[in-house]
Design a protein that fits this description.
The protein is α+β, with helices and mostly antiparallel strands and 256 residues long. Helix content is 28%, strand content 26%. A five-stranded antiparallel β-sheet has the order 8-7-9-14-15. Strand 4 and strand 5 form a beta hairpin. It is globular. The two termini are 34 Å apart. The structure holds magnesium ion (2 copies). One magnesium ion (MG) binds next to loops.
């Protein structure tokens, strides 16, 4: 599943990064709106329709709809679902956690971002899982500097997550993003010995996205061929930002 990264990384000009900031801002604003929407009683389809309407109302296209055949604009993954949950009539309940993954395209360029929300009051362990996942993302972003390697991002995420007693999902990874939602390079959330990945260069735009399980790291795919769940049934959390590597350091495109 993890292939060797090549030199086919597409670096973006400052003007192209400015375009990507537009779709990134739409996603950041949408996540702020979702804070108010996510509560016990709503369905995962409610989240999807709100997200789709918001993205379109801002003059953007939902990146995920139809991509590889995905049927919705948001991936909505509840509790033991890691990523790629298909929105439907599942109703959120107090104590659930819900990962929402969104993409938007403006003027030909995509941004990709995900967050995990608590539904009402959740357990302390679930809150620790969410916080650790978010913090590990920022540890990774901090490494996204000219001259460093992809593995420096991977190492920062992995060491933080494992120091907190949680486990990294290894079969899925982050990626470059731009005119295509998924571009080179792959950004694993753990270090692969002997594969440091490309050297980071000015203009690289990267979707960094730790997926973290409360229990064992294993995952499996459900019969719908999309939804990925933890193999042991434990909760899983997901955070993602699209960032640009610049001379001034990493710039998060999907934050306000
Ligand atoms: Mg995503
Ligand atoms: Mg992504």
């Amino acid at each position: 599943m993890l292939k060797k990264t090549t030199s086919l990384v597409i670096c973006k000009s400052p003007e192209e990064i400015d375009i990507m900031k537009k779709s990134g801002r739409i996603l950041a604003e949408l996540f702020e709106e979702l804070h108010g929407l996510v509560k016990p009683g709503i369905t995962t389809a409610d989240i999807d329709s709100f997200a789709e309407e918001f993205i379109i109302s801002q003059g953007a296209n939902p990146s995920f709809k139809g991509l590889y055949g995905f049927p919705a604009s948001a991936c909505v993954s509840v509790n033991n679902e890691v990523v790629h949950g298909i929105p439907g009539n599942k109703r959120l309940a107090e104590g659930d956690i819900v990962g929402i993954d969104l993409g938007a395209q403006v003027e030909g360029f995509h941004c990709d971002s995900a967050r995990t929300f608590p539904v009402g009051r959740i357990s302390k362990e679930a809150m620790d899982l969410i916080r650790t996942t978010e913090e590990s993302l920022y540890k990774g972003i901090e490494q996204a500097r000219i001259g460093k390697r992809i593995a420096d991002i991977s190492r920062a995420i992995q060491s933080y997550v494992e120091s907190r007693g949680f486990s990294i999902v290894k079969a899925l990874s982050g990626h470059g993003v731009g005119r295509n939602l998924h571009e080179e390079p792959m950004i694993p959330n753990f270090v692969i010995r002997g594969e440091p990945g490309p050297v980071l260069a000015e203009g690289m735009t990267l979707a960094i996205e730790p997926m973290v399980n409360a229990g064992e790291p294993g995952i499996k795919t459900l019969k719908d061929n999309w939804t990925i769940v933890t193999s042991d049934g434990s909760f899983s959390a997901h955070y993602e930002h699209t960032i640009a590597v610049t001379r001034e350091g990493p710039v998060i495109l999907t934050a306000l």
